[in-house]
Design goal:
Membrane topology (chain A): Peripheral membrane protein
Largest sheet of chain A: 8 strands, mixed
Number of domains of chain A: 1
Number of helices of chain B: 12
Distance between the termini of chain A: 37 Å
Oligomer: heterodimer
Largest sheet of chain B: 8 strands, mixed
Helix content of chain B: 25-40%
Strand order of the largest sheet of chain B: 6-7-8-3-9-10-12-11
Structural class of chain B: alpha/beta
Largest interface: A-B, 44 and 44 residues
Radius of gyration of chain B: 21 Å
Order of helices and strands of chain A: EEEHEEHEHHHHHEHEHEEHHHEEH
Number of helices of chain A: 13
Shape of chain B: globular
GO molecular function (chain A): ATP binding; ATP hydrolysis activity
Strand order of the largest sheet of chain A: 6-7-8-3-9-10-12-11
CATH class of chain A: Alpha Beta
Radius of gyration of chain A: 21 Å
Low-confidence stretches of chain B: 1-18
Protein name (chain A): Peptide/nickel transport system ATP-binding protein/oligopeptide transport system ATP-binding protein
Family (chain A): Belongs to the ABC transporter superfamily.
Strand content of chain B: 15-25%
Number of strands of chain A: 12
GO cellular component, one term (chain A): plasma membrane
CATH architecture of chain A: 3-Layer(aba) Sandwich
Mean pLDDT of chain B: 89
Chain lengths: 330, 340
Amino acid sequence: MGSSPLLQVKELSVHFRTDRGIVRAVERASFDVQRGETVCIVGESGSGKSVTSLSIMGLLPKGIGEIKEGEILLNGENLVQKTNKEMRRLRGNDISMIFQEPMTSLNPVYTIGDQIAESFRYHQGIGKRAALERAIESLRRVGIPLPEERAFQYPHQLSGGMRQRVMIAMALTCNPELLIADEPTTALDVTIQAQVLEMMKELKEAFNMSILFITHDLGVVADMADRVVVMYAGIVVEEARVEEIFQRPLHPYTLGLLEAMPSLNSRGKRLRTIQGTLPNPLQKPNGCRFHPRCPFATDKCRLEEPSLENVGSDERKVACWHYDQLEEVI
Amino acid sequence: MPVQIAGQQEQSIRLLDAESPLLEVNDLKKYFPLKSGLFSRSGGSVKAVDGISFTVQAGQTLGIVGESGCGKSTLGRNIIRLQEPTSGRILYNGQDMTHLNEGRLRHVRRDMQIIFQDPYASLNAKLRISEIVGEPLRVHKVGSRLERQEKIEYLMEKVGLEAEHLSRFPHEFSGGQRQRIGIARALSLNPKLIVCDEPVSALDVSVQSQVINLLQDLQDEFGLTYLFISHDLSVVRHISDRVAVMYLGKIVELAETEKIYQEAAHPYTQALLSAIPVPDPVEQKRRQRIVLKGDVPSPVHLPSGCRFHTRCPLATDHCREEEPVFEEKMEGHWVACHYG
């Protein structure tokens, strides 16, 4: 295990072309994922969290989304400069991704066994029968009961939780070093979500892989993350170890999110809110993107954009002019 | 059996509260027939709501929680009779809603409104906000044109929107603002009971808390009674006075909110609570999670005996054979479990 990170995202900027203008979906985002680590990217709609993950996978929609600047280094190799063919080989082998709605990622006219087997055949060049056996084995590993029978069923015959397990089985066929999970449990019921999260933790240990977990759910973050990256309106506003984020948030947005959630003690009281609404992606505020909603905002925040700076250690970063005031509040 | 349940419940209400409830639901059932085959022979039915009884006092909030397919939305829709119940009784202010003719129903319905989950699908995209909020007033022929206009402006202010928004169309608003518009529309006829069907589930966290606060402020100001349907147990805990937990068309547990969250008696409630990830990494690592096996069974082929037995860690042969009665195990704490 070397000391260099598995994944390094450096100053990544991604633009989207829309009918109404250019959307700067991600702006100068930087973060690392170490080997064997789970990093959660948290954010609301329009935060750029999903676009960041699609950029890493090389799956930005052609002619619409484009990486404008920055580097994405996997094991030191810059993915931004790879050809489509090189990326195709990388996806599945080194990085895999699972999505929120497994039904849209599975092919409805092939059995799930065939779909997983195809991945084994493509990436490992093994025969049809051997691939199917491996597929059944991988279904067993993600906790699908009676995998010998399930392998011959079609996606519509499975429940949402089962489909997500199939997606995970498929993503893990080639022991990827990095699994990107984009809201993988958001469409699932809580009891099923609990099953899938537990399984992901076990598989992470078993495969010794890293997970980049995209979510809006702070409960899931607390459960899964080693480290947390908070995004707002395309910007990384804070980064820290998971305990730090929850106990000592330094960005007013992170604090606002934590306080806005109903909790044990909130019953009968008003919830704390973040005033205002999420910014229009076509007309983001100048200066700090969060200033129109921030209780700490000053003239400096309206004019100058804060950059993501280390606070104390390398593991603690925040993009705010007034984070020291938050330290006092908490 | 249903008669007995209803009887018990009426008794308990008298004990708890001298006043009669605003809403009383007795053994409500809603079955959706399944069509099969070329000649549409009946192929059984989906028992979406299968014998549900509860009461709600005026000014209170009853939270209804459960996972997808448990029948919670169907329940809400049957109560305000957007769908016709298969059987059972719904008493509103002591008046039997289930046997009203169209005219009377329309009159009573002014008292009952619904707020939907999807603020993008529940507003007519071709109407201006003033028309959307004013439509119930127009349909029910309330007041003059001028009075209606004043009422609409008053409602907009109450839900935190500007009067200048009235001439705009739904697509010009964010999700949270649209939900406010839906709330203004629901309030237009001065209802007493509002069914809130997942009203904040589609909203971002930072906006969700604004809408929850708004719902609570309006309840305080207008004395509203809420039936708050949600899969989000944290939100339900925050807003509800009492909570009913549903599983496969039945209520498995009903009690005051803190009783449910701190002394859950039904194994399903316990599992559901332990499955919510708590936003505290230290607590999350410490606590023991009950991970339920398997999926929710199909409501077409319900398990025998207790519906939960296929996933229940405590299930015995008794549970497989006999369905437990929904009964008051402790004062005000109703449970349907042989062992809970």
